[in-house]
């Protein structure tokens, strides 16, 4: 993730908003877990570069858990989040240390742990950096039933072609990684695949990262983020069952 848009409007991790869930270790990963522990349906939400402690991410986890899902937000960055307040922070070194291929593989023991608890169906959603992780999971794991990518980072045409599960891609009008023309191209690629359903949507007037790093005092921004959150939830209700 090298686009400056990935680093705009970072969350306040000291806001005191921690949510209704608990932090547990699952599959070797510290994870924020919320929702019914007895649910047979689970969702994995994979963060952007600012990590699993982001208040808006945990609020979203609680919201979708209320629909009957067990929701898990893993710390795939192992506490090493992008820290723009640190003058010693090196974006390039950070990017090399947190490859999305490794993160995808690190998620698989978590999936196994969920299945061992009786979970029968799993969906995965990813935001920015996490969106790239999720598309790799959608390709390499047979245990993911549906995927949602929200303003994902760079994804290749080959990766899109390899997806074989229901996938939704929610994109911003103003996005260096996924400009509208790229989103349209991917929509056309997916539309010819009759073996699974896809959904691609462009949200006007918003920028990359809008579903997580919105200004809570900006009514229009909150409305657009909530619209995307509902579209994500609708996708999982339809395909994770």
Intertermini distance: 33 Å
Radius of gyration: 16 Å
The unreliable regions are: none
Task: Provide the helix percentage.
Answer: 25-40%
Helix/strand-derived class?
Answer: alpha/beta
Number of β-strand runs: 8
Q: Order of strands across the biggest sheet? A: 1-2-4-3-5-6-7-8
| H/E element order | EEEHEHHEHEHEHEH
Q: How many helices in DSSP terms?
A: 7
Judging from the principal axes of the Cα atoms, what is the shape? globular
Strand fraction band? 15-25%
Tell me the major beta sheet. Answer: 8 strands, mixed
User: Overall pLDDT, averaged?
Assistant: 93
Write up what this structure looks like:
By secondary structure, the protein is an alpha/beta fold. Helix content is 36%, strand content 22%. It has seven helices and eight strands. The chain has an eight-stranded mixed beta sheet, sandwiched between helices. β3, α1 and β4 form a beta-alpha-beta unit. The radius of gyration is 16 Å and the shape is globular.
Write out key terms for the chains shown:
alpha/beta, 241 residues, 7 helices, 22% strand, globular, eight-stranded mixed beta sheet, single chain
Secondary-structure map:
Blueprint: E1 22-26, E2 29-34, E3 41-46, H1 55-65, E4 70-74, H2 91-97, H3 100-116, E5 121-127, H4 129-140, E6 146-150, H5 157-162, E7 167-174, H6 180-191, E8 198-207, H7 219-239
Parallel strand pairs: 3-4, 3-5, 5-6, 6-7, 7-8
Antiparallel strand pairs: 1-2, 2-4
